[in-house]
Amino acid sequence: MCRLASLALVLATIALPSLAPAMSTRVAPLAELARRADLCLVGRAVARETFWREGRIFTRVTVQAEEVWKGAAVPGQTVEVLTLGGVVGGLAQRVDGAVAIEVDERVALLLAREPAGAFVPLGLWQGVFRVAGEGPAAAVARPTPPVRLVGVVPEALPSSVSALRSAVLEAARAPR
Amino acid sequence: MPRADRLLGLIAVMMAVAEPAAAYVCTRTDAAGGSGAGASLSWFRRDVPYTFYVDGTAAIPGDLAFDALRASFAVWPKAEGCDDTGAPNGLTTGVTFHETSWMSHVDRVGYDYEHPDANENLLIFRDRGWPLPGQGDIIALTTTTYDPVTGQILDADIEFNTADWPFAVDGDASSMDLMNAAVHEIGHVLGLAHSPVKGSTMEAQGQLGETKKRTLECDDTNAVVFKYPAGRPNGYCDPVAACGYCAPPEAVVRYPLVTVTATSATGGGCAALPPGAATLVVLALLGWRRARR
Q1: Would you state the pLDDT for residue A145?
Q2: Residue A123 to residue B137, Cβ atoms within 8 A
Q3: Residue among B172, B188, B153 nearest B26 (CA)
Q4: Is the pTM of this model over 0.80?
Q5: If you average pLDDT over residues A60-86, what whole number do you get?
Q6: What is the mean pLDDT of residues A117-126?
Q7: Which end of chain A has the lower number of beta carbons within 10 A, N or C?
Q8: Is some CB atom of chain A closer than 8 A to the CB atom of B209?
């Protein structure tokens, strides 16, 4: 099953190219995101809640780190990740490009720290990679925005956890 | 199995395996960017108000920024549908916008659920800093608040990140053209998601100095004409038509299965019934037939 899921993710990555410049959000190269990130990790979402903050609905996802590639966290530690949008009671809010992370989902994240101490994915969907399977060979893919762009040459993104780790580590070592 | 049921079943299978048309996409209640089968986000009124935050932007002198936004709102109501060849098909939209007689002094976007009547569809330039830490890549952002069951849009605000990005109204090649960005964002206000059609205004791509999205392409006009057709009363929608694009309360009562917020992702152009929604509709009809026996 895991193998099938991994294959599906890889195929999805090939079939649905990632974005070049998006209309309302700049699409940054992966290396730049990795350099800018305060925290890069792979982990599993263990809890999720939505809440209002000054008119906006946020979803707070608690992620338990399995590997930490960059930043001040250790494996086993939990970090709070805020994403825009969600449903609270009878109201919902959405922002195009924001990503929902489900409980039990395994994700690789490139995160920026916000002043209150929580983390946010860099560039909305760009800082989130869904992971299918376990171990370093597990497939990773960005949650593809719901568009199939024609004629866009996408950045070749890593397709496995180990390849993404290498890309992040290499970028993090490069001078700012 | 009676012949009619077999026929409906066959139609369901055919629709389920059909390739979704590459066309405009509606934002839906159950999956980001229109990939689900739930009700799509729609205003249940045809005249949508908007309010400017009082400060404007230092990047664009005088009232030129507000004028560009007014011009952007005027674009969508003029939409006329077109056929496969691009020729006008005579279909128009009934949606309109109007500017409120006041400007807002409250710079808070989102929704005040304690005072629903106090909400404004706000347009604001963020000169003094982008309020979302770590998200300086965002050029403009539309935040839409809606009923998660019916898809009724209750409020939609647009923020322009003038703190991190240069904006202009004269087509300057090194700036984001304000009207170019605003017409696209107003498409989100109307409940449209990014379109896979290259060159459309709701296409996800854009670049500095681009101005072609100041006007609409066929894909965009067909979207707004489909979602908000002229000659229909406020709140009009046909939930059995393509993709359950809207579902006012009376429709929820009449067609309860159509508003099921399925969790499985399916394809989703609104111009063609997407496979998941098609199957839901046909299965709903099958269930309805059985219930009547």
Answers
A1: 55
A2: yes
A3: B188
A4: no
A5: 96
A6: 91
A7: C
A8: no
By CB neighbour count within 10 A (0-12 exposed, 13-18 middle, 19+ buried), where does B176 fall? buried
Between B62 and B179, where is the model more confident? Answer: B179
Residue A65 · residue A34 · CB < 8 Å: no
Dihedral of CA atoms A54, A57, A58, A59 in degrees, nearest 10, equals 150
Lowest mean pLDDT among A22-36, A48-62, B1-15, B147-161: B1-15
Pairing of strands A139-141, A119-121: unpaired
Q: How far apart are CA A98 and CA A82, in angstroms?
A: 10
Contacts of B210 in chain A (CB under 8 A): none
State which H helix or E strand residue B183 sits in.
Answer: helix B178-189
**Cα of A11 to nearest chain B Cα, Å:** 16
Which domain, by its residues, includes A107?
2-173
CATH 3.40.50.10170 fits B47-227, yes or no: no
- Calculate what percentage of chain B has a pLDDT beyond 90: 46
Quote the number of domains for chain A. Answer: 1
- Residue A173's pLDDT is what? 83
pLDDT digits (tens, 9 = 90+) for B174-212: 999 999 999 999 999 998 888 888 889 998 877 889 999
B108 vs A54, A96, A98: nearest CB: A54
> Mean pLDDT, to the nearest integer, of B44-52?
92
CATH of the domain at A87: 2.40.50.120
In which residue are the tokens 């996802």 written?
A: A61
Distance of alpha carbon B278 from alpha carbon B194, whole angstroms: 21
Q: Does B141 touch chain A (CB under 8 A)?
A: yes
Cα Rg, chain A, nearest whole Å: 16
By residue count, chain B amounts to: 293
- Residue B132: name the closest of A42, A48, A114 by CA: A114
Residue of A nearest to B194 (CA): A147
Q: Give whole-number Cα distances, B37 to B136, B143, B206, in Å.
A: 32, 21, 28
CA distance A27 to chain B (A): 7
What is the three-class DSSP state of A173? helix
pLDDT of residue B207: 82
- Which residues belong to CATH 3.40.390.10 in chain B? 47-227
